[in-house]
C-alpha cells in the first residue's frame, strides 16, 4: 500500500506525506510533474495524490500521460478553491476524485481511504483470512477475537498479503509495496518482519514458498496445492 504525493509546496507535501504514513501507508513525495510521472511509472503505487498547478508538467499533463501509458491507478487531484473548470477538466481526463485546497487532514485521510476502498471493492475495509481480521480503516487487527498489536510495517505487510489471499506474492514485489523512499533498510528486514508477524499471528499464518515468495492462505491447505 504505497502512495505517491505530487505537490510542489513543501510544507503541504510534508503534511500530506506524514498524514498518510500515520495511516500505515508507505508514502513517497514528488515536487514537480516530471518527478511525479517518473515515480508513478517506476514504482507500484496504489494511488496518486496529484496537485494541479505544478512546475515542469502540470497535474493534467501528468494525468493525461499516465492514462496514455495505461496506468489506471486512482488519482486524486488537489485543486484551487475557485478551480471549478479544473475539476471538470480533471474528471474528464480520468481523475477519480478531487479535493479543494484548504481541506483538513482528517478529510484528506478519509477521502484517500474511500478511494482505495472503491478500487478494492471491499465493502467496509475488512480483510479476513483464517482466524485473523484486519481493518484497513481503523488499523485494528484481531486474531480469534483477541486484539493484536502490529507495528506500521508489519501491518502493511499483512494487509498486502491478506488483500491477495491464496496468491503467492514475490519478495521483491512485497518489499516495493510496503517500503517508501525513506526506507534504506535491506530487504532481509522483510524476513525479520515476517518472523515477528508469525510470533503474533501464528507460525503458519504467512507461508514461505521457497524461491517464489510469501502467501496467506485463503483456506487451509492452499499452500500444499502449490
Ligand atoms: Ca502547486
Brief rundown of the structure:
The chain has 226 residues and is of the alpha/beta class.
Q: What descriptive keywords fit this protein?
A:
4-stranded antiparallel β-sheet; alpha/beta; Rossmann fold; Arc Repressor Mutant, subunit A; binds calcium ion; 5-stranded parallel β-sheet; 226 residues; 11 strands; 40% helix
Runs with pLDDT <50, length 5+?
A: none
Averaging pLDDT over every residue, what do you get? 88
CA gyration radius, whole angstroms:
18 Å
How are the strands of the biggest sheet laid out side by side? 2-1-3-4-5
The proportion of strand residues reads: 15-25%
What sort of overall outline do the alpha carbons produce when their principal axes are compared? elongated
Description:
The chain is α/β, with parallel strands linked by helices. It folds into two domains: 2-121, Rossmann fold (3-Layer(aba) Sandwich), CATH 3.40.50.2300; 124-215, Winged helix-like DNA-binding domain superfamily/Winged helix DNA-binding domain (Arc Repressor Mutant, subunit A, Orthogonal Bundle), CATH 1.10.10.10. It has helices at 10-22, 33-42, 59-68, 84-92, 105-120, 152-162, 171-178, 189-201, and strands at 2-6, 26-30, 47-51, 75-79, 97-100, 126-129, 132-135, 141-143, 146-148, 207-209, 213-215. Calcium ion (CA) is lined by residues 8-9, 51, 53-54.
